[in-house]
Design brief:
- The chain has 147 residues and is of the alpha+beta class.
- The protein has a single domain (2-142), classed as 3-Layer(aba) Sandwich (Aminopeptidase), CATH 3.40.630.30.
- 29% of the residues lie in helices and 38% in strands.
- The protein has helices spanning 11-21, 28-34, 79-93, 108-117; strands spanning 2-5, 40-46, 50-59, 62-70, 98-104, 120-129, 134-142.
- The protein has a 7-stranded mixed β-sheet with strand order 1-2-3-4-5-7-6.
- A hairpin with a 4-residue loop joins strand 6 (120-129) and strand 7 (134-142).
- The radius of gyration is 15 Å and the shape is globular.
- The structure holds coenzyme A.
- Coenzyme A binds at residues 21, 52, 67-70, 75-81, 103, 107-110, 112-113, 116.
């Protein structure tokens, strides 16, 4: 099992996970372009093929989580948890001191995952998501040394 930062060469594999995980996936071309950008950080767990990925945008010392997804047939095996816990070290080295994210209030699996990873609920945006209408829960996690 290895965790590595993805490049455009990984687009197909990562896109397959994105497409299977989300009802409104990114366009493949958008993902390929994002993977070229220095501030777009995408890491995947390979075992031996890509099982899960996480992407975030680096804005100064903040990592704004964009996506976290695990292949449907590989869920509940600890892949997302392991992947996130491994990338914290990479992110710290890269100058990230905290992660922020928004999650649909009806996404119980993701909220439980983030809570287990140590994220704290810090706010809510009412009716932020459409189809169906749903609140966004704002969560963050400090990984820097200062508290
Ligand atoms: C959310 C998601 C990434 C979790 O991935 P995963 O690899 O299955 O998660 P893990 O196996 O590492 O689970 C770690 C912890 O998360 C929580 N969790 C994960 N899936 C859960 C579920 N279906 N129900 C309840 N808790 C869940 C549990 O606390 C779990 O720990 P436990 O197994 O000891 O109880 C996966 O369900 C997914 O890809 N969902 C679709 C995409 C998505 O909604 N992404 C998040 C929004 S960007």
């Amino acid at each position: 099992m290895t965790v590595k930062r993805c490049t455009t060469a990984d687009t197909e594999e990562i896109y397959r996970i994105e497409e299977a995980a989300f009802s409104d996936p990114l366009k493949k071309e958008t993902m390929a372009k994002d993977l070229e950008r220095e501030s777009y950080c995408c890491y995947a767990l390979f075992d031996p093929d890509a099982k899960a990925f996480i992407s975030y945008e680096k804005v100064f010392d903040e990592g704004q989580v964009i996506s976290v997804a695990t292949k449907p047939e590989c869920r509940r095996k600890g892949f997302a948890e392991k992947l996130f816990n491994e990338i914290v070290a990479f992110a710290k080295k890269d100058g990230i001191s905290f992660f922020t994210l928004e999650v649909r209030s009806d996404n119980e699996a993701a909220i439980k995952l983030y809570t287990k990873l140590g994220f704290k609920r810090v706010g809510v945006r009412k009716n932020y998501y459409r189809n169906p209408l749903c609140d966004a829960i704002l969560m963050d996690l400090h990984i820097g040394d200062e508290k």
